[in-house]
């Protein structure tokens, strides 16, 4: 079939809007009509060429929601008409990782996913007879996409797809990092570095966890207003100080924070986020994604003296079993998604959505097919 798509032909160039060919689902696969997708900073990162797993030409996009059109042989958990959120972190329930109870990092399709392929090692997308790579197992920048059954969360048909698409990454990642990775306790002091969708979702999670103080940090002061609306209590622009940002936060908090979250992808800030944690118990969670070849460093003494460095992917959330609950929470008004959506556009304007993200003018732009 033909599908409207925005394809990444090469690194560092805008996406190309065109019509591509999409093959039907094979065994264990599902054809999804994407109704809405957003642009996450990770799409921009991969398009920039900094992602060691970035492949071109490809169909990017991983924050979407849609409707099942057709299922392949052997698919039992989904049927045409079901509403779904594609998952870049699958949940097979059977692999060593799923059975461990210790992580959401399912291994069932991850190896081929990282090579831009479906689990059988081939692709379902092509342009002029030449294959296009998949991306993160989701490729939501095509109106029709093919996704493994294990990479789809079935959600309520009552929920608006152009809102819950944000649960495909940003909102879930931030809230999950607070709840599952850090396990923030009531009264805790939290520092959030970077106030894009991920940082704002961390703030929302910290409010849900009843944190006592939530320090919002960004070099773009325009981000503070929304951070305040989400529940941040203190606002710090590193550019306003001559001291290092870790020293500023340590001074503000009588020795450091209980939890910090890096939501930028900057390895220098990751160090600051660790070093602003309280001696003896402070934990820093790396959420931001850094480019190929970049490395983090600190004095080992920081860890010897009790600070803990952790990372979080998709907020530690197991998508198939937990996302339906996030959708229910949204429907009950217990979880805010709407305030992350600063822009709505028709799909064809997708390159404008990237421009807004780069300019720091949007949190999330939802693209409607
Ligand atoms: P974004 O671009 O919307 O937000 C980043 C924010 O960081 C911006 O507000 C920017 O002004 C701020 N910033 C930049 N440099 C800064 C600095 N030196 N000090 C303080 N603030 C600074 O991005 P996003 O979509 O919120 O994504 C944030 C990061 O999280 C990206 O690296 C993305 O790839 C990553 N991410 C990771 C996961 C995961 O599962 N681990 C999931 C989603 C996104
Ligand atoms: N291909 C990248 C991996 C980047 C990365 O860490 N991705 C996050 C999700 S970002 C969503 O916006 C993640 O979940 N990682 C775990 C995984 O299995 O990919 C690189 O740097 O190689
Ligand atoms: Zn993302």
From TrEMBL:
E.C. numbers: 1.1.1.284
GO molecular function annotations of the record: alcohol dehydrogenase (NAD+) activity; S-(hydroxymethyl)glutathione dehydrogenase [NAD(P)+] activity; zinc ion binding
Catalytic activity, as annotated: S-nitrosoglutathione + NADH + H(+) = S-(hydroxysulfenamide)glutathione + NAD(+); S-(hydroxymethyl)glutathione + NAD(+) = S-formylglutathione + NADH + H(+); S-(hydroxymethyl)glutathione + NADP(+) = S-formylglutathione + NADPH + H(+); a primary alcohol + NAD(+) = an aldehyde + NADH + H(+)
One GO CC term, this protein: cytosol
PROSITE patterns xref list: ADH_ZINC (PS00059)
Gene Ontology biological process: formaldehyde catabolic process
Class of enzymatic activity (EC top level): oxidoreductase
Cofactor(s) of this protein: Zn(2+)
Enoyl reductase (ER) domain residues: 12-367
Record flagged with keyword Metal-binding: yes
Pfam families named among the record's database cross-references: ADH_N, ADH_zinc_N
Keywords, alphabetical: Metal-binding, NAD, Oxidoreductase, Zinc
Entry-linked PANTHER family: ALCOHOL DEHYDROGENASE (PTHR43880), ALCOHOL DEHYDROGENASE CLASS-3 (PTHR43880:SF12)
Function recorded in the entry: Has high formaldehyde dehydrogenase activity in the presence of glutathione and catalyzes the oxidation of normal alcohols in a reaction that is not GSH-dependent. In addition, hemithiolacetals other than those formed from GSH, including omega-thiol fatty acids, also are substrates. Also acts as a S-nitroso-glutathione reductase by catalyzing the NADH-dependent reduction of S-nitrosoglutathione.
Family according to the record: Belongs to the zinc-containing alcohol dehydrogenase family. Class-III subfamily.
NCBIfam families assigned: adh_III_F_hyde (TIGR02818)
Name of the featured protein: S-(hydroxymethyl)glutathione dehydrogenase
Phylogenetic lineage: Bacteria, Pseudomonadati, Pseudomonadota, Gammaproteobacteria, Oceanospirillales
């Amino acid at each position: 079939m033909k599908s409207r798509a925005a394809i990444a032909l090469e690194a560092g160039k805008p996406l190309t809007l065109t019509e591509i060919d999409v093959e039907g689902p094979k065994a264990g696969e599902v054809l999804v009509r994407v109704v809405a997708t957003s642009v996450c900073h990770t799409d921009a990162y991969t398009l920039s060429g900094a992602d060691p797993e970035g492949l071109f030409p490809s169909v990017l996009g991983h924050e979407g929601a849609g409707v099942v059109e057709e299922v392949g042989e052997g698919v039992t958990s989904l049927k045409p008409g079901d509403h779904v959120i594609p998952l870049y972190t699958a949940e097979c329930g059977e692999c060593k990782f799923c059975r461990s109870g210790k992580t959401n990092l399912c291994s069932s399709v991850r190896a081929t996913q990282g090579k831009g392929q479906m689990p059988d090692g081939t692709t379902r997308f092509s342009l002029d007879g030449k294959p296009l790579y998949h991306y993160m197992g989701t490729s939501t920048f095509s109106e029709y996409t093919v996704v493994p059954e294990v990479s789809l969360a079935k959600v309520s048909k009552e929920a608006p797809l152009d809102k819950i698409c944000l649960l495909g990454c940003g909102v879930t990642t931030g809230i999950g990092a607070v709840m599952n990775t850090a396990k923030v306790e009531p009264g805790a002091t939290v520092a959030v570095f970077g106030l894009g969708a991920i940082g704002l979702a961390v703030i929302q999670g910290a409010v849900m966890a009843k944190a006592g103080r939530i320090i919002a940090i960004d070099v773009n002061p325009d981000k503070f207003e929304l951070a305040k609306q989400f529940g941040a209590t203190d606002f710090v622009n590193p550019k306003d100080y001559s001291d290092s940002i870790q020293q500023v936060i340590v001074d503000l908090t009588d020795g450091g924070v209980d939890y910090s979250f890096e939501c930028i992808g900057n390895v220098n800030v990751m160090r600051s986020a660790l070093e602003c944690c309280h001696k003896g118990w402070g934990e820093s969670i790396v959420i931001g994604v850094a480019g190929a070849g970049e490395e983090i460093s600190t004095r080992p003494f920081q860890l010897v003296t009790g600070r803990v460095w952790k990372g979080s992917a998709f907020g530690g959330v197991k998508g198939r079993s937990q996302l339906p609950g996030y959708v229910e929470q949204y429907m009950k008004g217990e979880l805010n998604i709407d305030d992350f959506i600063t822009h709505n556009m028709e799909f064809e304007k997708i390159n404008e959505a990237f421009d807004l993200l780069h300019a720091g003018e949007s949190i999330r732009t939802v693209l409607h097919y």
